[in-house]
Amino acid sequence: MTIEESIRRHIEARIASGEWRPGHRIPFEHELVAEFGCARATVGKALAALTRAGLIERRRKAGSFVARPHVQSAVLAIPDIPAMVEASGKAYRFELRALRIAPAADGPPELALLGGKGNALHLEGLHLADDAPFAFERRAILLDTVPEAAAVDFVGESPGSWLLHQIPWTDAQHRITAVNADRALSRALDISPGLACLSVERWTWRAGRGVTFVRQLFPGDRYDLTAVFTPS
Amino acid sequence: MTIEESIRRHIEARIASGEWRPGHRIPFEHELVAEFGCARATVGKALAALTRAGLIERRRKAGSFVARPHVQSAVLAIPDIPAMVEASGKAYRFELRALRIAPAADGPPELALLGGKGNALHLEGLHLADDAPFAFERRAILLDTVPEAAAVDFVGESPGSWLLHQIPWTDAQHRITAVNADRALSRALDISPGLACLSVERWTWRAGRGVTFVRQLFPGDRYDLTAVFTPS
DNA sequence: CAGTGGTCTAGACCACGAA
DNA sequence: TCGTGGTCTAGACCACTGG
Questions:
Q1: With contact defined as beta carbons under 8 Å apart, do A29 and A44 qualify?
Q2: Lower Cβ count inside 10 Å, N or C end of chain B?
Q3: Angstrom distances, CA of residue B193 to CA of A122, B129, B215
């Protein structure tokens, strides 16, 4: 247990118990220095961590205050599909359904967000768990940014995994919605038409240049996303 | 631009450009100290931030390395519904549909995760935007933890907002799924039966004690969640 | 065993912003 | 104005762990 950690816990406990309500001014740094008998940098590190966690807000000259619980935000884990399938003890396989090279402008409108101008590799495929459909994926990879994708054989290998190992992304944006399975999707996933599916769309950039846009569709009854918020 | 920030950017740029691939050993702290002519604590702060962002991994005696891009994780914003409605310029209203006090054990099975034993306030209601249904919500509030909830008049006020201002939570867990609207839901939201809806479930604790479990259902075509990942 | 990162100290200067 | 937090320095000790 570091000193920093004990300072953090000390404050967290008072906030959690309700002893210090939102808006309450917590002790000044120099008071905590006196209370814990440590250097100011150590107190500062603890308070910085609490600030990052959203538990307190700090204002120069005024002090540090218990934050009013703001808009919920949480850390969402979006595992890649092969890892997810294998974690459940099943055999993963990717089945390529379609592949073509065409101008990015010919792709879905969502591609525009990536800002790509040249050609893109458009592909469709199915993620299988023990040979049963697990998710359907439609993806575009901008060949301006990832020219080597044109030469890759995606039969068997998930394009997401290949990209992940090839092009570390630096920015990503996700959009999560619910959609009814249309006829094509219900056939691909072997589910009844109209079944609610979770749609996860992801835009990926590296150093400001668009890399890929993908839309993955999961049967609503076979998949869910979980997110956890815990301070510090 | 602080020194810490310039060190971070220096390293981020090299990772983003692909110059330093995953697994590459970045300079030792003492080398960066020499390069930037600053104190070791400053370099340490920059590298700690990069570690938190998941861009590098650090091992004692071995050094710091560019992280292999791991399982995707993102920060998901889950705004509370009144704020969301008002942000879109519409008038918010909450319509209470049902309310009863009963043992927590009589509630949905998900309630068990909260670990509550005594009575709970069970309520159902509708979030309205300009008097049009926006989301349906079913909630249980553990009266052991929040006894004052029994006396509140939730007509007009969102119970989520009331709780947020009353009981700052310290831990929360979310589950996001897609479901088809059943008959009751389609009537409540005024949508066609079977329409795909986004279900957001949230468990909330304060200092280890369960506070509330809520399930909110949004028509899939009127709502989506977005999540953003950006390093540092 | 030797060198790394993890933590800490006891100072310092400064910008901001509440009073 | 002047106290606060934000940032930084130049040291120190230590636990861990790779070679």
A1: yes
A2: N
A3: 34, 21, 19
Interatomic CA distance for residues A131 and A91, integer angstroms: 8
- What confidence score (pLDDT) does residue A71 get? 66
C1'-nearest nucleotide to the CA of B43? D8
Q: So what's the pLDDT on residue A230? A: 59
Would residue A33 be called left, alpha or beta, if left means φ above 0 and alpha means ψ between -120 and 50 degrees? Answer: alpha
Considering only CB atoms, A229 lies closest to which of B168, B172, B230, namely B172
Q: How are beta strands A171-180 and B72-78 bridged, if at all?
A: unpaired
pTM of the model: 0.87
For chain B, 232 residues long, the average pLDDT of each consecutive 10-residue run is 95 91 95 97 97 94 90 78 91 95 94 92 96 96 94 88 82 92 97 96 89 94 76 50
User: d(Cα A165, Cα A78) in Å, to the nearest integer?
Assistant: 16
User: How many CA atoms, within 13 angstroms, populate the side-chain half-sphere of residue B198?
Assistant: 24
Evaluate if the CB of B59 falls below 7 Å from strand C.
Answer: yes
